[in-house]
Amino acid sequence: MQSKKIGLTGKIVIGMFAGILFGLLLNTLISGAADSWLKLVVVDGVLRLVGEFFITSLMMLVVPLVFVSLVVGTCSMSDPSKLGRIGGKALLLYLITTGIAVSIALTVASIVKPGSGGSMAEQDVTFEAQEAPSFVDVLIDMVPRNPINALAEGNMLQIIVFALLFGIAMALVGKPGDRLKNFFEDVNSVIMKLVMMLMQVAPYGVFALLARTFADLGLGDLLGDLAVYFITVLVILLVHGFVVYPAILGAVTRLSPVIFIRKMLSNQIFAFSISSSNAAIPVTLRTTTKRLGVDSKIASFTVPLGATINMDGTAIMQGVATVFIAQLYGIDLTMQQYLMVILTATLASIGTAGVPGVGLIMLAMVLQQVGLPVEAIGLIIGVDRLLDMTRTAVNITGDAMVTTIVGKSENQFDIDTYNDPDAGLNPDGSLKGGDDDNRT
Ligand code: ASP
């Protein structure tokens, strides 16, 4: 009876809190002694092993899952020309929501003034900027010269383009396409089964990852000059994830925002603990299709696309960080520079994969565009770990929200699944598997 009440989501939540508490405990016990046995055996031994094992297994599934599910989704579309409309809608929504996110961040940061108390006089920091690729380069780079290479490197945009073209050709070629479709559908079911198997051990993986992160976290940084910056970013992220998204979803689709928040919770904890929208793709795909009721034809396209091009949480950090750094240096940003931040932050996210810490690299592009010192990023690195985790959870929530809106607007959406609190779950709260995964 007991296990009936604590489903997978409950276990993941427990794993998260237990991991954070255990990590904080280790943090105090170790307190700077890098050679303590607790650090060597527990943090860098057991916790690292379990955490890395979990994260690597998840990443192992990303490329095959994205490719196969996208091929299956595309080739079963009755009218492949719809793809353009779906892609257009998703792209527009992704860009608009990122624009909104960074605008909110800039506005709030200008009011809160997180950097007004500090000064850059005697700070010694370094950070190397990378050259920002031009928008045209990003477009050219979307077509893979060598698809096998794209798969091997996990280049998401290239994989998406190749899978879409492959799926369209399968739909057009007739019999050979039908034969291949059965094969890909079977492979898809097998990979989804693997995702489910992995999710059963997720509570332990989440526990280990969070315990290790919090054991190593330099909490001192959070209390110093960076406290206002940290709290400003964190609060905007939380409001964006838990208020703005559900509100947009409710307003556009008339679906219950509360159900959305509830069903996203375990997905958010996943993303929070692994800090990577890309590695979270298998879980986000499962949540959007099995729990939120979006047809996999849509989700298999919009979720990997979102993991790559939609990073609203990251844009929020960039907005606040830009204002923070400008204030530290005593520079007043002009309206034109604000607009530049919005544009660059939105465009920078397009060509950048959702992996841990990539937000800071994108921030370098933004700072460079508006002429602020890029090396100032060195100042905020200390508190970025926790923010990276939180913004990843926001990023994937945005992907799921846009996926739900597109699915609903295309009538590729099952309202009963959305409204059913237990959709995708067995009566004991574990994940449902088997044939129902073979959705086409
Ligand atoms: N880690 C984030 C993601 O994967 C990107 C970032 O903001 O660094 O979504």
TrEMBL record:
<feature type="transmembrane region" description="Helical">
    <location>
        <begin position="156"/>
        <end position="173"/>
    </location>
</feature>
<keyword id="KW-0769">Symport</keyword>
<protein>
    <submittedName>
        <fullName>Dicarboxylate/amino acid:cation symporter</fullName>
    </submittedName>
</protein>
<feature type="transmembrane region" description="Helical">
    <location>
        <begin position="227"/>
        <end position="252"/>
    </location>
</feature>
<feature type="transmembrane region" description="Helical">
    <location>
        <begin position="305"/>
        <end position="326"/>
    </location>
</feature>
<keyword id="KW-0472">Membrane</keyword>
<feature type="transmembrane region" description="Helical">
    <location>
        <begin position="264"/>
        <end position="285"/>
    </location>
</feature>
<feature type="region of interest" description="Disordered">
    <location>
        <begin position="417"/>
        <end position="440"/>
    </location>
</feature>
<keyword id="KW-1133">Transmembrane helix</keyword>
<dbReference type="Pfam" id="PF00375">
    <property type="entry name" value="SDF"/>
</dbReference>
<feature type="transmembrane region" description="Helical">
    <location>
        <begin position="338"/>
        <end position="367"/>
    </location>
</feature>
<dbReference type="GO" id="GO:0006835">
    <property type="term" value="P:dicarboxylic acid transport"/>
</dbReference>
<feature type="transmembrane region" description="Helical">
    <location>
        <begin position="12"/>
        <end position="33"/>
    </location>
</feature>
<dbReference type="InterPro" id="IPR036458">
    <property type="entry name" value="Na:dicarbo_symporter_sf"/>
</dbReference>
<keyword id="KW-0812">Transmembrane</keyword>
<keyword id="KW-0813">Transport</keyword>
<keyword id="KW-1003">Cell membrane</keyword>
<dbReference type="GO" id="GO:0005886">
    <property type="term" value="C:plasma membrane"/>
</dbReference>
<feature type="transmembrane region" description="Helical">
    <location>
        <begin position="90"/>
        <end position="112"/>
    </location>
</feature>
<dbReference type="InterPro" id="IPR001991">
    <property type="entry name" value="Na-dicarboxylate_symporter"/>
</dbReference>
<feature type="transmembrane region" description="Helical">
    <location>
        <begin position="194"/>
        <end position="215"/>
    </location>
</feature>
<dbReference type="GO" id="GO:0015293">
    <property type="term" value="F:symporter activity"/>
</dbReference>
<feature type="transmembrane region" description="Helical">
    <location>
        <begin position="53"/>
        <end position="78"/>
    </location>
</feature>
